[in-house]
Automatic annotation (TrEMBL):
Plays an important role in meiotic recombination and associated DNA double-strand break repair. The keyword Transferase applies. It comes from Etheostoma spectabile (orangethroat darter). This is Minichromosome maintenance domain-containing protein 2. Signal peptide: none annotated. Residues 160-430 form the Protein kinase domain. Keywords: ATP-binding, DNA damage, DNA repair, Kinase, Meiosis, Nucleotide-binding, Phosphoprotein, Serine/threonine-protein kinase, Transferase. The keyword Nucleotide-binding applies. Residues 1-20 are annotated as: Disordered. Residues 12-124 form the PX domain. Pfam families: MCM_lid, MCMDC2_N, Pkinase, PX. One of its GO terms (biological process) is meiotic cell cycle. Belongs to the protein kinase superfamily. AGC Ser/Thr protein kinase family.
Amino acid sequence: MPAATKMEEQPGLPNVSIPCHNEQRDKKKRYTVYKVIVNVGQQEWFVFRRYAEFDKLYNTLRKQFPSMNLKIPAKRIFGDNFEPEFIKQRRAGLHEFIKRIVSHPQLCNQPDVRAFLLMDKMQNFSDASEDEDDKVIHIFLHALVLMCCHFYFSAKPTDFDFLKVIGKGSFGKCSTCFLFLVMQVFLAKRKHDEKYYAVKVLQKKVILNRKEQKHIMAERNVLLKNVKHPFLVGLHYSFQTTDKLYFVLDFVNGGEVSSLLFFHLQKERTFPEPRAKFYIAEIASALGYLHSLNIVYRDLKPENILLDHEGHIILTDFGLCKEGISQTDTTTTFCGTPEYLAPEVLRKQPYDNTVDWWCLGSVLYEMLFGLPPFYSRDTHEMYENILHKPLVMRPGASSTAWSLLQGLLEKDGPHRLGSRDDFVIKMAGILSLKESVLVYLDKSGGLQKLAEDCKTYNDPQQIEAVYRFCISVNPSDVIEVDPVLGDCVLCDPIGATALFQSVCFLAIKTLSLVEKIHTESQVNVILKLTHLPPFPEYTLDLCSFPRGYGPMRPVTMEGLVIAMTRVTKYTQGARFLCINDDCSCSTGFHHIRVHAPGATESATVRNNFTCMICSSPLKEDVKFRVLGDKQLVELIHVKALNVLSAHQQSSFRYQSVTLFLRDELCNSMRIGQLYRVLGIPAHVHQWPSITWSVEANSVQPWEPEYPHKVSASFQELLKATAGSPWRFSAIVAHYFGLDVAPPGTYNTLKLSLLLSLVQTRADAKDTHHNLDLLVVTTDTLILDRLMTYSMSLACRGVRHQASGEMFASLSRDEHGAGTANIHAGSALLATGGICMLGDLGCYKKDRLDAIQSVLESSTVVVFIPGKKYGEDADQQLSFPVHCSFWALADATDASRRSGRADCTLLGTAVNSILEIRQLLDALSLLSEQEMGPVPMQLADAFGLVIQCRDTVGEQALLAQTIHTLQQAVQPGKPLYPSCWEFSTQDYHELVAHAQTLQVELSPGAEKIIHGYYMASRRVRTQSQGVKMSVASIKLLISLAEAHCKLCLRSQVQEEDAVIAVLLCENSVTLKHGASALVVPPDAVFPCDLGDVDGLHKRDKTLDELHQTILHFIYAYAPGADARVSCRRASSAAEPAGLERPGPLKLPTTVRTGTGTRTGCRAVIHGRPGAISTVHSKRLSSSHRGALTDLKNCIR
């Protein structure tokens, strides 16, 4: 495009045309370019446009002016776009289109049309005030030279040896014009003193033709004033020849190739924030100096910034400077570099020196992120971005940088940072904050703690690059000392850390605490925040994961630990030395790298760092490296467990967040536990991806709040049953699970499930607070549903899938830790709650062995192969298991394998003691088969084993069928209106409240538990060879405490201990057979509870069983009569209720079923100190009644 002459904008409309035979065809790129000639008044220029640009303008105008009915030639999808006839028709259509646009005033003044025709840029290429007559120009140019060389009027080019070209360029740069070479910069050595200079050579003819005299004069004036500022290049003198002008300038470190800031930025892509801050501060100082001289720079960009031999910046190239612009003056010249133009320049609005602050923000953005803020390859799109697109902050910048960029890149000039007063760093504010830091450290005892911590570093043999100090900071106390400092701590923790670091360094040097600390960078300060304000901006809900890049302020979050790595090492700090021996950084502690939040190991230690003074490579001094501990933890919202509890109602996706635990925080978290974490978000850069993570600052255990109240229905029931210690829990269990089974069925199982729920607590630290439950049944479907329903009442419930991982799994870490990531299985995720295993028949033998091992040790052992996960040696880690396991065993599997369903010995006559013993052995064999596929060792590992069978046969099946059908036909309608009705929410509140109760054992309950354990261990050890472990006492205590809590009492009474003994005895009998204490198979629920008579009858039966247990303890526990007081009045005599052995009488048939056994009294056999010689093992629950009668007759 030919150069445009300067002109004034005319009020008339432009005249446009597309002449024939001026198309430029590029067949390689397959498009045609049309020449559009524009005439406005006396001015004429032309632009080249493709059809695609016409089409884009057409689509824009069609939406804004639909009534104009604009048209352009249609696109051609098939055929040759270069046919002459097609080109001719398209050119004619485009000509009519553009002519119609410029003929309409509203369309002609549309911004896109003016940009399309370059009307604004060509009409306002430069200030009108900058036009001069050619004669005046020549006089002005000579005057300039004479003023510049009044000391060196005799200088000439032969005084220099011109070594090489180190730069070239032009004046009055505009993105829409073709520029001619105006000047060259040479590295030259002056002959008489052999000093090096940068000599700028300008062509007079080109200057006159291009009318660049004003720009040269502006640069000359600025150069003459720059000698007083260290960050502006200085002019020594100037001279001229017939055709050239020469400016002798400072030579900066070898020329623009090696000292150009742009060169380093291209090589390194981005600068670390401290380095960028250093450069920007010096550039701001230089700009402020120019503004104080009423000079606007207008062309700030990395290409115009040099670095000297000490690493300081030098600003050069003042060709676009504008003089005489004070704080209130403006100019309108359209000039600068497209990527750094301010919005007001693009809008052709008057502007002042605030355009330099916009350029400064653009340069800072490019230093931090590698590209200007609104960069695009399409210049027009880039201009649109500058004018309208909001600033988007990329990851990796601190909140201070974020705030600074927002202020500098404000699109509204009057509100831009620096618009009211020049942008300068006011040290008064910094010093005030440091003084406040000192006051806070003095008041909070931080200085005293700093002095104590320094004592550990005074070992003369301990020499490190950095020294770490942890300072506890209470934000509330800091705000009281200085609100500005408090805001800095909460909104800019990295900036606050720098303030504390500076004050601590001054304190250490002033008080001579550590002589080995020489520079501030050697002090590594870690601020430990005690808490955060309870406001939404300081709280992060893991359900609503952050989607944007905001300021990295500290936040508080709560969640569940689902995975973690083992503790590894990371680099806290390292010392680097310059390889250039002549550089001052080749010794000392000038280059110290300290770990920053969210930074990877390569960000702290790598081999491509360069010296900030001489740009030479840096080499690490390995002996000064400081290592610390690091651990990665995956935290997820606790609601994610709903997916594993089989009660998730809808589909959700939960995202975990990675926590970095460092140094003293390592091993402070455990898998499966809930924690509240205070941390600082950070972006971990692992090219080409970026990971959002959190650097943990403090970690505390956390428990969610649950409703601790009892519903009015249960409160009313508690009052109604206050006369009996057993009735409340009986009714609660009787009506439990009505969504699955009718009332009165599986009462023993329901009570056991409730006891396990009550005793299993989220804050349980010892395994004896849990109740593991194994249910043996012939109907796994209904019981599985009942147990699943019960699990929904737990504070945390996980239903394990047979195909999933039960305990722990391993994967390779993806965050550069170089170790294995340990993921929690179902058991660890259920910490403090219930882990439901389902039917054990679905597991293979190796998995059953693993379950048995965990039940016995309450520990999961994870083996980490070293070679697979990058370790030097194999590792073995242990994790405690704190949950209750629920499992099912199908008893019908054993019956099918045995090939018989009944015992042919039943109903036969028994004529001798030998035959009785043979019959007992046969009944014990049947009892062994009822355990199903569960090995004996695994059954022993479970704390409580419950056998469930249909006690009334077809009646139970019919009742269950009617119950299920009624629920399906009439959902939500009460099925049993004459009975107590308790909702699921009522049970949930009851369990949650009972879990919080603190109970203690009464002396009577403690004596019953201890006496039963001693007597049972003696009986079963001598008669059956079964050892009663100490775990039995823990089971008895847990059962008694759970029953006490379920009854909403605070002290465990003897009645609670009786329930515990009955459940435990039934469980042991099911596993190992009957002992001298024989109780009915359904001792806890011996009769139907449908009415008051049933409750009264149950109370009477339990009273009798209470006495039976006391007699058993008196008979087989030595010294029990001195510790256990019998409720009945027999003291010295033989305990009441003990029946003397009579003659052997055995009925020819034995009736089975609890329907005929409800009134049967449990008895013990033998005299005090004697043990029955019947070696019965385990008996079927359907045959224990026969066993009782046999034992009555055995003596």
